[in-house]
Structure formats: C-alpha cells, structure tokens
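ok, trying the design again with the full structure, not the truncated one.
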C-alpha cells in the first residue's frame, strides 16, 4: 500500500485492498480495522476525513489490513468476538465462539435455574466463552473449565479476569475427564457442558480456508465421523455426574441422531431435548443421567 497522510486516503486504500482480496464486506471491515488500529470512533472518521495520521498507528492499520487480505478471520485481526452479550479476547490459539454455541448457555441456564449451588464442568473451554457466560448468569454456580490446550486456558483465564468472574472458575488442563475422575468431584457434578471438536474427516476437506488455515485443528477435528471425543466423553461422564446430572452438548449437521443412538447414551442417559439452531440444524443435545 502507498504511504497515506489522512484517514480518508487510508480508508480508500484499505477498501481497495480488501475488495481485491475477495472480502465480501470490504467497507465495513475497513472501518472496523481503522477504528481499532487508530483508536478513533466511526463518527470521528466520518467528520474528520482529512485529519493527519499518526505514522505508527498507520503502520499498525496497514499490517492489520494485510492480515485480513490474507483471509485471517476478522475476529483474530481485531482480537475480540462478542458472545452472549460479552466481549471475549480471541487469538489463533482458541476457536472463535460461534453464535449457535449460545444455545448451550441458554439450555444450561434453563436446566439449572432451580439448583441452589450447581457444579458445572465446561469441557474443551477454548476462549472460556461457555464457562464465563454461565458464571455471569448463574452467580451461585461453581464452575470448572478444562481444556487440553494450555495456551487456550491462558486466554480463557484472561477473559475471566476481564469479565470479573475469575474467582468463580477453576481452570484445569487435561484430556477430557480422565484427570478429574480420580479427584473429589466424582458424583458431584450437576452438569457437563461441551462443545468438543466435531468436524468429520469428510467435512474437513470442504472447510473454508478461513477456518482450516487459521483456527486450531485441535479445536475442530473430531475424528472420522466427528464423534470420537463425544463417545469418550459419554463413557467417562457417569463417573463424575451426580445421580440426576445432565449433559449439554453441541454437535454438527446429522450428528444429533447418531449421538442419541450411541450405546453410551442409551445405557446411561435419557434424552431431554434436541434443540435446532436458527438454520434448523439439530445442534444441542441435552441428556440426563438415569440409574439403570
Ligand atoms: C470446538 S472448540 C470449543 C471451544 C469453546 N468451548 C467454544 O464453544 O467456543 C473445542 C475445544 O476442545 C479442546 N479439546 C480438544 N480435544 C480435547 C481433549 N481431548 N480434552 C480436552 N479438551 C480438548 C480444544 O483445545 C478446544 O479448545
């Protein structure tokens, strides 16, 4: 990009660059990046188009435009994503929270509304979006959040601190539930919430480059049919759940039926609800432990 001396020049250059890179919303994204990099509001940009540019801030804006032009998701470029009305830091070490995942928060709040002191376990917490939203909306809950990625846990902790709930969440690194089964949580967990990786190998081949090239594979790859991690989780979960404990799980297209027919579900759980997302895809599976 050529050197720029004013907001309006930089804006026009950015729109051209993003358009050329095939970004579908170049004008909006150029404004978002400018607001973020220059530390000014949209109103200031519109009312002062010829305002002189600070050289350092301009370099920063140009470097962000380059990242976006290489198709890095806008959320990583700007460093945040809104989820359930809260603002989360997102970096390439964590999955960008998706709108359909908010349904898990809604279902969990509904299930636990009458519990006096629920114990909630968020497995595969990533950015911490589920654990933190639940901590905000269920102030009496005790929450444990776990992930295999230590880098993701670090970001989740930062988010909890920023959003004022770090005292109410216990962060644990480990592979699914194995590290928790031997501790004093056995039989005490009221609900397990999970948005585990569920992309099948077939789907992987068709993922858009924005996702495949930038989001962590550990957060996406669910094995040949996408359900490897859920099968393991469902086998391990009864060891932690209380006698009427619940599980709330997010799945992909065509997986809700498969999951509900898994022997680990039919033997140990009753199905409470399968909730579709806004596109009509059965997205959230809620089950409750039953004693045989
Ligand atoms: C689909 S992302 C979900 C992140 C976040 N909960 C959300 O809804 O945006 C799945 C998360 O599970 C974690 N994960 C993958 N395999 C795991 C395992 N075996 N044990 C624990 N966490 C795992 C990944 O590191 C990733 O953070």
């Amino acid at each position: 990009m050529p050197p720029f001396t004013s907001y309006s020049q930089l804006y026009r250059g950015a729109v051209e660059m993003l358009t050329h890179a095939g970004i579908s919303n170049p004008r909006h994204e150029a404004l978002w990046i400018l607001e973020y990099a220059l530390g000014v509001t949209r109103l200031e940009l519109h009312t002062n188009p010829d305002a002189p540019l600070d050289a350092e801030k301009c370099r920063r804006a140009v470097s962000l435009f380059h990242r976006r032009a290489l198709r890095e998701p806008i959320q990583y470029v700007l460093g945040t994503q809104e989820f359930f009305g809260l603002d989360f830091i997102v970096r390439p070490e964590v999955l960008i929270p998706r709108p359909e995942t908010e349904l898990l928060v809604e279902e969990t709040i509904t299930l636990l509304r009458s519990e006096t002191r629920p114990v909630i376990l968020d497995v595969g917490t990533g950015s911490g979006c589920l654990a933190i939203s639940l901590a905000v909306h269920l102030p009496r809950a005790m929450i444990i959040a776990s992930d295999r990625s230590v880098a993701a846990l670090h970001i989740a902790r930062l988010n909890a601190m920023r959003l004022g709930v770090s005292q109410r969440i216990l962060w644990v690194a480990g592979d699914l539930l194995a590290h928790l089964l031997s501790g004093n949580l056995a039989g005490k967990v009221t609900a397990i919430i999970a948005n585990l990786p569920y992309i099948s190998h077939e789907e992987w081949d068709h993922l858009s480059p924005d996702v495949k090239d930038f989001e962590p594979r550990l957060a996406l790859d669910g094995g040949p049919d996408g359900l490897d991690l859920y099968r393991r989780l469902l086998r391990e979960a009864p060891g932690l759940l209380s006698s009427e404990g619940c599980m709330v799980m997010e799945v992909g297209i065509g997986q809700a039926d498969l999951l509900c027919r898994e022997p680990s579900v039919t033997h140990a759980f009753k199905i409470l609800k399968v909730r579709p997302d806004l596109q009509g895809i059965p997205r959230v599976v809620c089950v409750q432990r039953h004693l045989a």
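Keeping the full-length input from now on. The mean pLDDT is 95.
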